């Protein structure tokens, strides 16, 4: 018997020893397989792409995860107290594992057979979130414990807690406490109250089930539990506890706090970065700083919005978007829900008509409030019979709307309310720095939510007469002058493909006879421009246009090119006009100035070639930093001088309201008034405004000076406010000569009809004749019937 007991004892010892060896082997294997935690010291959390203006205003953010990392010393103490009171009250005392907590979880498991409590410390949660999967297994728990011990050995308690507070998921796409504060309360973390800190601290247990936006009752109970724990642990006194627990939940979804609205810029930059870095841009904390000026972008947004709404209202009221029926108390709640499903477009809010007085209406908003629109906000709404035909002026509100109509509401600058409608036309505005091509502002349409198509970069449209300055520039380089006289007379051009005849006309359907080129461009004379193109030769002109960045495929091989029948984007037009504005150099437009990575290191810095006026000869062994010269300074000066006249006495005199002498520009309207343009500049800024329908055959029934120019003026009013005038300096090689305004020939000093004109020195006219023959009775080289 003793022998059996001795053998049994030895066998037991042997089994225990073997199990111990196996256990130690397994433990060693697990420890050996554990990842290194050194990377946690410099870990890069997933943070979305952020895009800023050049003055550091956030204009866009891209990425599924919303996270705003905070260092430990910037986390408010009440939040830390709330988190520790609920998640790990002995955090600063234990070595990474809390034995009482683990024992309690083990007892619960034995008693119930369910893994309801994990006994995890904050350090263990950090280990799990960075290195392990969420599945509840004994193996994972063991690795979690060992990793926690390893992390505590490598990192300080403060660093571990910082990782936890920035990594933890808190619902509604919010990762980390700062992002959660922005999403639920629309404020930075350091501006929250105690009850709000408690709500955030209660979320880690079940971010979805306790989400205050979806389950407010459960969230309120959890918040109050956190406050009770804080009070029990003496983190707060009785007064603070009672005040916080009585506070309403007051959590609402707050969208991203964009500081400057520039979605078309943001999308352009996002696409460029996607090509460079792939999907990393959505998680690797890239920060992009653009060339956009926040104040100019705000001005551009407002100008496009106001210009389109003004154009739209000039062409009448098209009626309601729908009708909800007869209003009543029971219907109001349903109407509010229906209105809530209709998006607000560029601050044009959907509302429903609930009462009609003689000269006012009352409308219901989606939030349940009522607004009265007075007669001054309604009287514009003449019925649109067709795009160019309006009904009589309304005399009472019932002639405009019916009960139940869903209409649009807009707030006026004076604080009142006005009937509105979403414009059917579209518009865009692009502003560039002519010196280096940096995009200062860009609006690609009325509203990005309504249409994300960027008309500035992607819409190929005919520029109309705004293209003429490039034809005249080509002529100046071929020896013509602004005093050259060309006959403004009927032109008939034969189309050899079908033997049809083209008979272009001036906009006024008049002929003005012999006309100097300065006057022809200032007054936008079509027939002179066509004759000029024919004189200089179409092949030469098409080749010359490429100096301004226009591709040969964009240019029609016919005399209609003189009237702007090319297909170009507004961005191309701005880039081309920059050649005039900067004195003759071609700059490349760009939006990204610099890119920083998650370590705040510059990974990209733009180095644009810049326009130079003097001392521009590249130095030996020094990289060239100057943009290539496309036309001479003298050519650019002469065109700018003429486009200055366009504003002072030509087709854009409305811009004289800006009361500046340094502006130059050109209107543009295409055939049948399909597209309206204005391109204008001084030495500091070039801006191009376009207005038209996406349906490229639909007429605006307005000229460029009516539709696009007011938009440009409004933008430039803000852009140039407080800025000194910057007229282009007269370059060497330009002389002023008195000429006869009728013949363009040099006039005597005592000629009472004489006027001064600028010339390049090689082409100063002799007193007897012009340098270019004006015999318009003979068809010049290039063909044509005159």
Describe this structure in words.
Strand 10 and strand 11 form a beta hairpin. The chain is an alpha+beta fold and 786 residues long. 34% of the residues lie in helices and 15% in strands. Helix 2 runs parallel beside helix 8, helix 4 packs across helix 6 and helix 9 packs antiparallel against helix 10. It is elongated. The C terminus is likely disordered. The strands form seven sheets. Strands 4, 5, 6, 7, 10 and 11 form a six-stranded antiparallel beta sheet that branches. Strands 2-1-3-18-19 form a five-stranded mixed beta sheet, with helices on one face. Strands 13-12-22-21-20 form a five-stranded antiparallel beta sheet, sandwiched between helices. It is built from 22 helices and 24 strands.
Q: What is Rg?
A: 36 Å
Proportion of beta-strand residues: 5-15%
Shape: elongated
Number of strands: 24
Number of helices: 22
The helix content is 25-40%
What's the end-to-end separation, in Å? 135 Å
Reported for the largest beta sheet, the result is: 6 strands, antiparallel
| Low-pLDDT ranges | 768-786
Which whole number gives the mean pLDDT?
89
Structural class: alpha+beta
Topology of helices and strands:
Blueprint: H1 2-33, E1 49-52, E2 58-62, H2 77-87, H3 99-112, H4 122-131, H5 138-154, H6 157-167, H7 177-185, H8 194-201, H9 216-232, H10 238-245, H11 263-277, E3 287-290, H12 294-314, E4 322-323, H13 329-340, E5 349-356, E6 360-364, E7 370-374, E8 384-386, E9 389-390, E10 405-411, E11 417-420, E12 426-432, E13 439-443, H14 455-458, H15 468-477, E14 485-488, E15 493-495, E16 500-502, E17 513-516, H16 517-522, H17 526-536, H18 538-545, H19 570-581, E18 592-596, E19 602-605, H20 633-649, E20 664-669, E21 675-681, E22 686-692, H21 704-707, H22 709-719, E23 734-739, E24 755-760
Parallel strand pairs: 1-3
Antiparallel strand pairs: 1-2, 3-18, 4-10, 5-6, 5-10, 6-7, 8-9, 10-11, 12-13, 12-22, 14-17, 15-16, 18-19, 20-21, 21-22, 23-24
């Amino acid at each position: 018997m003793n022998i059996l007991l001795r053998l049994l004892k030895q066998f037991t010892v042997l089994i225990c020893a073997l199990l111990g060896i196996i256990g130690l082997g397994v433990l060693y294997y697990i420890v050996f397989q554990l990842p290194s935690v050194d990377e946690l010291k410099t870990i890069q959390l997933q943070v979305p792409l952020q895009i800023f203006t050049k003055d550091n205003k956030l204009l866009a953010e891209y990425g599924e995860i919303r996270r705003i990392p905070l260092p430990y010393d910037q986390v408010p103490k009440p939040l830390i107290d709330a988190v520790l009171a609920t998640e790990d009250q002995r955090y600063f005392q234990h070595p990474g594992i809390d034995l009482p907590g683990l024992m309690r979880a083990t007892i619960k498991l034995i008693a119930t057979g369910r893994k309801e409590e994990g006994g995890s410390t904050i350090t263990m949660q950090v280990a799990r979130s960075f290195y392990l999967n969420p599945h509840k297994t004994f193996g994972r728990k063991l690795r979690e414990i060992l990793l926690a011990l390893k992390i505590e050995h490598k990192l300080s308690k403060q660093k571990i807690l910082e990782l936890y507070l920035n990594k933890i998921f808190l619902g509604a796409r919010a990762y980390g406490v700062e992002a959660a504060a922005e999403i639920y309360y629309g404020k930075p973390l350091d501006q929250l109250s105690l009850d709000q800190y408690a709500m955030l601290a209660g979320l880690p247990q079940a971010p979805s089930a306790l989400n205050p936006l979806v389950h407010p009752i459960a969230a309120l109970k959890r918040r109050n539990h956190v406050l009770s724990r804080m009070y029990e642990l003496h983190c707060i006194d009785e007064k603070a506890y009672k005040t916080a627990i009585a506070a309403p939940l007051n959590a609402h979804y707050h969208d991203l706090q964009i500081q400057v609205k520039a979605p078309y810029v943001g999308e352009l930059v996002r696409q460029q970065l996607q090509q460079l870095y792939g999907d990393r841009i959505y998680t690797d904390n890239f920060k992009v700083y653009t060339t956009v000026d926040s104040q100019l972008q705000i001005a551009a947004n407002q100008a496009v919005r106001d210009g389109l709404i003004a154009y739209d209202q000039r062409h009448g009221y098209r009626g309601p978007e729908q009708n909800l029926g007869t209003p009543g108390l029971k219907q109001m709640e349903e109407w509010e829900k229906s209105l809530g499903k209709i998006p607000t477009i560029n601050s044009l809010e959907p509302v429903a008509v609930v009462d009609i007085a003689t000269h006012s209406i009352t409308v219901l908003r989606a939030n349940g409030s009522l607004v009265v629109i007075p007669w001054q906000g309604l009287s514009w709404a003449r019925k649109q019979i067709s795009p160019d035909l309006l009904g009589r002026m309304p005399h009472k509100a019932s002639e405009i709307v019916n009960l139940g109509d869903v209409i649009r509401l807009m707030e006026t600058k004076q604080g009142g309310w006005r009937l509105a409608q979403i414009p059917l036309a579209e518009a865009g505005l692009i502003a560039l720095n002519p010196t280096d091509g940096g995009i200062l502002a860009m609006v690609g349409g009325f509203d990005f939510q309504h249409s994300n198509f960027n008309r500035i970069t992607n819409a190929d449209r005919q520029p109309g007469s705004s293209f003429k300055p490039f034809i005249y520039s080509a002529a100046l380089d071929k020896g013509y002058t602004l005093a050259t006289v060309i006959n403004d007379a009927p032109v008939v051009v034969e189309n050899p493909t079908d033997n049809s005849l083209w008979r272009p006309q001036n906009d006024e359907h008049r002929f003005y006879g012999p006309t100097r080129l300065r006057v022809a461009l200032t007054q936008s004379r079509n027939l002179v421009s066509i004759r000029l193109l024919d004189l200089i030769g179409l092949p030469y002109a098409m080749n010359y246009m490429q100096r301004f960045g226009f591709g040969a495929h964009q240019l029609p091989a016919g005399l209609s090119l003189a009237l702007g029948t090319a297909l170009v984007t507004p961005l191309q037009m701005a880039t081309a006009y920059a050649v005039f504005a900067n004195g003759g150099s071609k700059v490349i437009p760009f939006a990204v100035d610099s890119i920083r990575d998650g370590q705040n290191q510059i990974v990209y810095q733009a180095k644009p070639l810049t326009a130079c006026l003097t001392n521009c000869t590249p130095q030996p062994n020094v990289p060239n930093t100057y943009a290539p010269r496309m036309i001479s300074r003298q050519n650019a000066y002469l065109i700018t001088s003429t486009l200055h006249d366009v504003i002072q006495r030509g087709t854009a005199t409305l811009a004289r309201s800006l009361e500046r002498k340094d502006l130059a520009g050109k209107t543009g309207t295409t055939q049948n008034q399909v597209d309206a343009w204005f391109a204008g500049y001084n030495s500091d800024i070039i801006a191009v405004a376009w207005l038209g329908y996406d349906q490229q055959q639909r007429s605006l029934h307005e000229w460029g000076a009516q539709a696009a120019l007011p938009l440009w003026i409004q933008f430039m009013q803000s852009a140039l406010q407080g800025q000194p005038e910057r007229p282009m300096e007269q370059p060497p090689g330009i002389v002023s000569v008195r000429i006869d305004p009728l013949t363009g020939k040099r006039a005597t000093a005592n000629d009472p009809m004489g006027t001064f004109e600028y010339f390049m020195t090689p082409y100063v006219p002799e007193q007897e004749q012009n340098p270019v023959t004006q015999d318009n009775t003979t068809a010049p080289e290039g063909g044509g019937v005159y």
